[in-house]
Amino acid sequence: MIDTELYAALKLYFGFSKFKGLQEGVIKSILSGHSTFVVMPTGGGKSLCYQLPALMQEGTAIVVSPLIALMKNQVDAIRALSSEDGVAHVLNSSLNKSEVKQVKYDIENGVTKLLYVAPESLTKEEYVDFLLAQKISLVAIDEAHCISEWGHDFRPEYRNLKAIIKRIGDNIPIIGLTATATPKVQEDILKNLGIQDANTFKASFNRPNLYYEIRPKTKNVDSDIIRFVKQHEGKSGIIYCLSRKRVEELSQILQVNGIKAVPYHAGLDAKTRAKHQDMFLMENTDVVVATIAFGMGIDKPDVRFVIHNDIPKSIESYYQETGRAGRDGGEGICLAYYSY
Known about the structure:
Layout: H1 3-14, H2 23-31, E1 36-39, H3 46-56, E2 60-64, H4 68-80, E3 88-91, H5 97-108, E4 114-117, H6 125-132, E5 136-141, H7 161-168, E6 174-178, H8 183-193, E7 199-202, E8 210-216, H9 221-231, E9 236-240, H10 244-256, E10 261-264, H11 270-281, E11 287-290, E12 303-308, H12 315-322, E13 332-338
Parallel strand pairs: 1-6, 1-7, 2-4, 2-5, 3-4, 5-6, 8-13, 9-11, 9-12, 10-11, 12-13
Helix pairs in contact: 2-3
């Protein structure tokens, strides 16, 4: 692969003139047909690692992703780069028959470069049979730690991926990507995907632009949060709470105090969730108060603060959630309230 070609493609599709961190090495590994394993912090530019090779090669790349919101987000982003809407598609349970037909048509006609699927969809016989007959350029498994029982986000349906990929094609390069880097989880991912010989790339997890602070949680936590948000007026932030009830309560308290805030949790219907997410991305609201259902793959580069009203269940979760701040390299304040 000639470097000039690679840089030309980067410029053409994404408008960037240079790669970030380990991206270039990862992409060259994928383009040379090697299975590849990428451990990169949140905000390190993981998705470009498989999107660029997919756009450059013939055939369709399958991207397995655990969350519908994340897929929609990425598909919209790729479509924005292209004149063809069919360049990226989602294949999951939310599609009706005619939508599925359109997806298949675009894949067969070589229009679709990236197909985002939920792991459950890949267990459907009809989809597997269909994909068997297509030219598949690569399979990317995003949030690959979901495959490991040792990970903080285990999804049993990820366990079947190896067998399904084998059926779809024998020498399709597999790319596993994660931001969770305990050695045990990494080993588990490689074993479960059957890619022990993968080229492995690990980036540094230090994000020097993030500022971490832990404050004691007192009964004045509400007014404390209000004061903090008002000091950062007009800036985007996420506030994480463990319960839906607390999410609703806190977003109302903020609204009453003149702060543009919306709630986000799994108890809201999909339409409301999508609306609130879009409001945040379009800056029609400043703050999203959310359970952890929010934010996987939310690509908003200028989140200026992440507040934890409750301490998360694991250090990996905490790292991942705070990692949504300051992805553009600018200021990111991470504030957590802690009580005994």
